[in-house]
């Protein structure tokens, strides 16, 4: 960095001296005034660009060699200009120096039009590699189950919290002068907006200025795993490396060592804390270290910020914001008196106002009156506020008709653990089976949008550069407020266990729930922590169609009773722990003959792949952040018919996938293949051309993939290719023009691709979605529709490079 600063000074000095020389010579002689004026205009135009390049070079820590050539050129230009001062009446020298000034001006312009653009392309490529690595680290954090990462984003308009943020800043932003860790606890009942408040606080400019990149956010929840939380907190500052701990105490000690190395103030947010011992564990005697806690408990030994209900005006504004579309005319049909009565029934409770307002949005006034009548029941109840709100929220769901699909979808979200993102593709697998949703995901996404608009769940922001490829759910996820999740579980648990439609079991520590001998549920979910090690009692589950397994252990035994699930169609297996999980006791294929969809996340597949390959009716397989290894080595697999019915294969963030296995090139029925964020994937087998029924191919963000196989010419049904951000891809197949069904190519960020094969002209009609740089490759093809979706590389660059690549 120091060398980059010196280089920047040298370049700036050379530019300044050249500019001074031009002005001086123009004043002393009139012989070359027009040429020198032109040259000075060029210097004036390029000087801001030079300054910007030097800033970037300092961030990139470029070496001296990077700008030696340019400095030499500037010094040579200064000497040439100085010579012009002494040429008076020698017409030959005036003529030759006039030509040299023209050449100099052209040379400077050429340098910026060609050399600098090449450097920029090189730098952009390097930055994109870093961006992808950062995205991968952040995705690893998300999937690892640690629930600790960057500060979450705020969704929508937040009403009534500005004053609260200011009050909280008084407690935490100013230095108190004490030599100890300060702790402030934001306490309130569920649904008051504690997480919203601390999230707003973290995004406040004053807070950002005070703590900079040293803001850390961890959601703790009811059953915290300190090793997992601290691993992710530390991994954030170790370039994605995975720290290892022998115990919780060791993890805490390493967190303390990390704090001792910090040169500036640190803010740690611990969200949703249930046990005060968690806060005490994170306390260290250190000036400038502050902990902000949210909890339903008060924890009286710490400074308290009690979060109260909204005032009437803010409550009314929040209800209206939730119940009426922006600029909508429906608000004119609803009397103000009815709105006021409903706000009173919600008792100025933020979550209730949001949910009930959302449920009424776009409905007839008669539904508003029915809702008011429902909520007015039991107004004189002496129940505590939490229980009262749960009762009111439960009653509000009566607005749905009996058997409403939206209500069923809301209840299905309870199958997944609290405070975890739920992939839309996982829900799509379930809802295809239960509610006959389409396989492109449009119906699933519509339901998620409706759940979000009714504030029954939060649809997480789509990536800025997202473009729908072939499945609308590929880039979406949802989360639920824990109060709404518990409400869904309570509603699903009203009947005896043996008669429930959804059986949701949470097994913590050494507690083994006793299940009935026979269950009749269609949906069955089991969640266990890393301490759970018991065997389940043998049960019959003849009607289970969807089985969701959530766990955190390094070794996981599938329940023996899976052999009795003769109706099972969807299996979702997710390890929320930090380490990959080894799976054992997977049932033989004969017991799972009706299984059509499997989703495996953060597990090692080597021990079960042979059984999965033999599932004759399996249509969709998703491997998310899995350890693949040599699982698909044909010498290890004796199964004669491998995936005979598979239509879709999704492989995402599997970092040890080096090549697409040859054995999978025989999936003759495969229609969609998605391989994304597999950064070690370098090649596809030449047997790839055997996938003759393939219609959609996604290879996005496989940054090490260099070429596509020539045998792709055989994929006559292929209509969509997505190779976005394949940074190393340098060639397309020579005979790509033979892909007669190809209609869309996505290729943003393909910075290594500099030319197209001649046969590309045979693809017509064709739509190309790319960035501006790549669009130049297609400019000579008149029949190709090019859609430019430029990414903001510079702002992305600035976000990731400063402050040691913090993610705040």
UniProtKB/TrEMBL annotation:
Recorded GO molecular functions are: ADP binding
* Keyword tags: Leucine-rich repeat, Plant defense, Repeat
Q: Name one GO biological process term.
A: defense response
Per the record, the domain of life is Eukaryota
| UniProt-listed Pfam families | LRR_RPS2, NB-ARC, RPW8
InterPro entries linked: Apaf_helical (IPR042197), At4g27190-like_LRR (IPR057135), LRR_dom_sf (IPR032675), NB-ARC (IPR002182), P-loop_NTPase (IPR027417), Powdery_mildew-R_dom (IPR008808), WH-like_DNA-bd_sf (IPR036388)
The residues covered by the RPW8 domain are: 1-150
**From which residue to which does any coiled coil extend?**
none
Similarity comment text for this entry: Belongs to the disease resistance NB-LRR family.
The protein's name is RPW8 domain-containing protein
């Amino acid at each position: 960095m120091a060398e980059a600063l010196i280089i920047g000074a040298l370049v700036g000095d050379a530019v300044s001296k050249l500019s001074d020389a031009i002005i001086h010579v123009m004043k002393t002689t009139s012989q070359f005034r027009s040429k020198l004026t032109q040259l000075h205009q060029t210097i004036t135009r390029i000087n801001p660009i030079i300054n910007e390049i030097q800033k970037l070079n300092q961030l990139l820590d470029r070496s001296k060699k990077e700008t030696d050539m340019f400095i030499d050129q500037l010094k040579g230009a200064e000497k040439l200009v100085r010579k012009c001062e002494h040429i008076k009446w020698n017409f030959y020298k005036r003529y030759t120096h006039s030509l040299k000034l023209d050449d100099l001006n052209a040379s400077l312009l050429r340098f910026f039009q060609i050399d600098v653009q090449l450097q920029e392309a090189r730098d952009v490529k390097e930055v994109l590699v870093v961006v992808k690595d950062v995205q991968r680290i952040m995705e690893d954090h998300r999937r690892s189950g640690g629930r600790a990462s960057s500060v979450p984003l705020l969704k929508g308009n937040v009403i009534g919290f500005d004053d609260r943020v200011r009050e909280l800043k008084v407690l935490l932003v100013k230095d108190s002068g004490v030599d100890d860790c300060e702790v402030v606890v934001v306490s309130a009942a569920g649904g008051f907006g504690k997480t919203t408040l601390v999230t707003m606080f973290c995004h406040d400019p004053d807070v950002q200025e005070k703590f900079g990149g040293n803001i850390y956010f961890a959601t703790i929840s009811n059953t915290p795993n300190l090793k997992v939380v601290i691993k992710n907190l530390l991994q954030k500052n170790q370039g994605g490396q995975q720290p290892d701990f022998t115990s919780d105490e060791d993890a805490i000690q390493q967190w303390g060592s990390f704090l001792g190395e910090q040169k500036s103030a640190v803010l740690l947010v611990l969200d949703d804390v249930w046990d005060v011992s968690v806060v005490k564990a994170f306390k260290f005697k250190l000036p400038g270290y502050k902990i902000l806690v949210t909890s339903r408990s008060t924890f009286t030994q710490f400074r308290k910020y009690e979060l109260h209900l909204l005032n009437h005006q803010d409550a009314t504004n929040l209800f209206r914001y939730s119940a009426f579309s922006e600029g909508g005319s429906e608000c004119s049909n609803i009397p103000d008196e009815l709105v006021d009565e409903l706000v009173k029934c919600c008792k100025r409770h933020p979550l209730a106002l949001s949910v009930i307002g959302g449920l009424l949005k776009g409905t007839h006034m008669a539904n508003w009156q029915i809702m008011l009548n429902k909520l007015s029941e039991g107004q004189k109840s002496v129940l505590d506020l939490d229980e009262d709100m749960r009762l009111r929220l439960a009653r509000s769901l009566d607005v749905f008709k009996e058997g409403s699909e939206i209500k069923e979808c809301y209840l299905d979200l309870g199958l997944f653990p609290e405070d975890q993102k739920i992939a839309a593709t996982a829900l799509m697998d379930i809802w295809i089976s239960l509610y006959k949703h389409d396989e492109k995901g449009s119906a699933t996404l519509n339901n998620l949008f409706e759940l979000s608009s009714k504030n029954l769940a939060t649809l997480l922001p789509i990536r800025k550069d997202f473009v729908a490829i072939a499945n609308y759910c590929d880039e979406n996820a949802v989360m639920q407020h824990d109060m709404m999740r518990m409400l869904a579980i309570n509603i699903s648990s009203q009947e005896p266990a043996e008669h429930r439609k959804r059986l949701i079991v949470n097994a913590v520590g050494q507690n083994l729930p006793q299940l009935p001998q026979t269950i009749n549920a269609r949906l069955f979910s089991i969640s266990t922590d890393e301490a759970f090690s018991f065997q389940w009692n043998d049960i019959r589950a003849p009607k289970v169609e969807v089985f969701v397994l959530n766990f955190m252990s390094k070794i996981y035994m599938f329940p023996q009773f899976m052999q009795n699930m003769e109706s099972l169609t969807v299996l979702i297996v997710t390890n929320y722990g930090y380490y990959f999980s080894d799976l054992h006791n997977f049932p033989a294929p004969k017991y799972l003959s009706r299984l059509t969809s499997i989703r495996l996340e953060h597990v090692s597949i080597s021990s079960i792949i042979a059984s999965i390959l033999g599932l004759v009716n399996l249509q969709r397989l998703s491997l998310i952040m899995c350890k693949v290894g040599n699982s698909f080595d044909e010498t290890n697999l004796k199964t004669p018919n491998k995936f005979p019915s598979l239509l879709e294969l999704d492989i995402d963030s599997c970092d040890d996938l080096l090549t697409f296995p040859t054995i999978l090139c025989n999936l003759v029925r495969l229609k969609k293949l998605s391989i994304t964020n597999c950064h070690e994937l370098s090649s596809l087998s030449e047997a790839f051309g055997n996938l003759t029924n393939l219609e959609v191919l996604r290879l996005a963000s496989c940054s090490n993939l260099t070429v596509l196989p020539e045998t792709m010419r055989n994929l006559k049904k292929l209509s969509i290719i997505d190779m976005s951000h394949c940074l190393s891809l340098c060639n397309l197949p020579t005979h790509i023009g033979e892909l007669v069904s190809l209609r869309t190519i996505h290729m943003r960020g393909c910075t290594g691709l500099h030319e197209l094969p001649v046969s590309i002209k045979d693809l017509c009609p064709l739509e190309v979605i790319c960035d501006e740089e790549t669009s130049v490759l297609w400019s000579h093809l008149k029949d190709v529709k090019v859609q430019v979706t430029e990414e903001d590389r510079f702002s992305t660059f600035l976000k990731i490079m400063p402050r040691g690549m913090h993610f705040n």
